[in-house]
Amino acid sequence: MAIYLLSTLIILVLAGLSARRYADHRADQQIVESLVRSQPQNPARFDPGMVDRLPEPARRYFRYTITSGTPLFTVATLSMEGKFGMGDRDKPDYLTMSARQTLAAPIGFLWTMRAGRGLTRISGSDTARWTRFWLMGLVPVARMGGTPDHARSAFGRYVAEAVFWTPAALLPDSNVHWDLVDVNVARVTVRHGGLSQSVDVTVAADGQPLHVRFDRWSNANPDKEYRWQPFGGYLSGFQNVNGFRLPMHVEAGNFFGTDRYFPFFVVDVTEVAFPHD
Q1: Which of 8, 153, 214, 276 is 20 to 30 A away from residue 190, measured at CA?
Q2: CATH of residue 12
């Protein structure tokens, strides 16, 4: 009798976890569908004159990253392979990773990831609404989000990633403003839904973005307290994708520009697409 009750309990627990996992997958899909719908169906095409009034480094950035006549798609889907650090600078604890992302700044993003080492496997998703990860696809090991702190931190992430992969989303308008920082540095500030994020973009002589730096609202510190702290990354391996020149290799992490910098996110992009059907 005891064995029967235990078996029944185990089955019920597994069924509950499976239902929760399915609900997570369904929520991920709903986010993706919503983000893709925000893609303009017949966007304007890039004219270098659109950026004539921007600071000179910003003009260089746009004229490098967007070819004249390119449809200005602002939503991208990306596939990537690389490694994700679970530790710190001294002990990176990298896991081999594959991930897929839908990026639609300033509206939002969804990043789904599978990572592991040996027999250990972690999978889950990250959005402006939540962070949810599972061990072996069965045991929930991280479920957080739904707070202003989480939303602010996520906003910093996907505004910066727009610099990498969706430059058309950063063309100047009433909610996107560019300022001069230095001869090779421009600062973009994006506002949306009560949030504001500034990102500094350093460009080469030809306009290729070399790295980004910004203050990110983050609790990735020894105190586990949310505060503004430096974040950033290096961009390389640029390729032409449908008229956009985009970095296929990105290394990014906390405390960028300091001796505490730890590139926990190191990826090679294997595919970029701009959904518009």
Answers
A1: 276
A2: 2.50.20
